[in-house]
Amino acid sequence: MTDLDKKIRDVFPEESIFKTPIRYNIFAGVNLPSFIKDWLIKRYSDERENIDKEALFAFLERHIPGKDSDIKSRLMKGETIQILVRVVVESDLKTGIFKFSVPDIGIKSNEGRVSEFVMRSLKEGMKEGENWGIVTLDYVRPEDGEKGYAELVKFKPFKPYTPDIDYYCEARKQFTTNEWIDFIVRCMEYNPDSSQFESYTQKLLFISRLLVFCEPNLNLIELAPKGTGKSYIFNNLSKYGWMISGGKVTRAKLFYDMASNKPGIIPNYEFVSMDEIKTIVFGNQEELQGALKGYLENGSFTMGQAKQSSTAGLILLGNINLDDHRMPVNKRYFQELPEVFHDTALLDRFHGMIEGWYLPRITEDLKLEGYSLNVEYFSELLSMQRKISRYAAIVTEMLDIPKNADTRDTTAVIRLATGYMKILFPHVKSVTDISREEFETYCFKPAYEKRKIVRMQLSIADMEYSAKMPDIKVRGLDDLL
C-alpha cells in the first residue's frame, strides 16, 4: 500500500474503494457502468476489502438481468419483479400516458407503461429520457380488446450517496497538488503511477476530460488517436451525461421534438458527448447549425414561441490520424469533424480543444490498482460543483483582462479556468486561498492554451479570424517576479 493509498483511505474511510482489475472480473459478461459496479463492490466488501462473492452473484442474478433473462415470462406468470436497471421514459400525447422501455432486457416502449401514481408521486428522480434506478414491475393482462403490458409501479432513483461537498473541499487541504492530481486520475479509474504518464502536464491534460462534468455550459472538442480512453470516460463515470455514438442527430433529437412535444437530449442531461463523431449522420445541417450556434452561445434554444434553457455542455469526440512522430497528419484539425462543424462561426463557440495525441494509449499498466473514491460518489461531487458560483468569481478576480479582449476568448478562458479550479482546488473560497503561481500553472495556462488552439485553427480555416489571443494575464503575478 502506497502513502497515497493510506491517505485516501484515512481521509475518505467510507467513500473510498479498493480497485484492481482482478476484483472487477466478477462483472465479466455483465454490462454495467462503473458507478453501479463500484456501489456493488462497496456494498458486498468487508473492512478488509474481501468481497462476499456469493451474495454479490445472488444480487446480480436476481436484480440485474441481462438480455437473455426470462423477465417477460415471469411477469406474464404473475410475478412482481424488482430490478436495478436503466429505464427510458417517454410521454405519448395521443394516449396521455408515459411509456417506458428497458433496453437491457428487451422491453420496448410499446410494451411498457409507467403508472399514473409513480409519475404523480415522484417530484424528482424520474424524468423523460434515461433513468437509473430500482424499478418494480407488474403485468397488466389484456382486457376489453386492449393489449397487455408491463407496468412500472414503483421507482427508486439510483442515488445511494448524498456527498458532503464541504467535507470534500476541506479534505483537499490534506493533499499536495501533485498528490491531488494523482488522486483525481485514480478517481477516473486509471493508474497515475503508470509509466505511460510521462509528466504531470500530461496528467493534467488527461484530467481535462472532467471539465464538462463540473462546469456548466462548457463546450469542448477532443481529437485523439484510437485507444486513448475517450469513450470510457464519458460513458461510464456519470449517470448525468449522455453519449451519442452513431445514428442520426437532428435538431429535434438534441433540443425539442415539436411533433411529439418531447424534450430532447440536451435539456435532460448535464453534458452530452458525441463519440466517433464521423459515424454520426446529421440531418438538416443548416437548421442544426443555427440551433447549435444559439445554444452554444447562451445556453438557450427556442421551443415554438418560447425559449428554453439548459446548462448541458457539449463535447465532440473524434479520431485523428498521426504521423510517425505522433503528430496530426492534417494540420487543419477541424477537417476531421463532420461537415456540419466546418462552419467557423459555430466552431468559434467551442471554448477549447483537447489535443488527445499527447495522451497515452490505454494499456494494462494504466488500469488502477489501489484506492480511489467510489465513482458514484465522485460523479455526484462533480455534479454538485456545477451549481457553486464562487469559483468563477474568484477566477475573474484573479485575471487582468484587457478592455479590448474578444468576448468569446474571455468567456472561454474564464470558464475553462473555473473548471480546473473546481477539480484541482475545490477548497478555494477566496483569492487568498490559492497562490498566483499555482493558479497560473494549473488553471490559467491550460485554459488559455486550449482556447488558443481553437483560435489558431479558426485562423487557418477562415481569414476573417486572427490567430492572436487577447493578452490576458494573472493579476499581480508580475509584481512577484
From TrEMBL:
Domain of life, source organism: Bacteria
GO biological process: proteolysis
A single GO molecular function term of this UniProt record: peptidase activity
Domain annotation BREX system Lon protease-like BrxL N-terminal: ranges: 11-139
Record-linked Pfam families: BrxL_ATPase, BrxL_N
Keywords: Hydrolase, Protease
Protein name: BREX system Lon protease-like protein BrxL
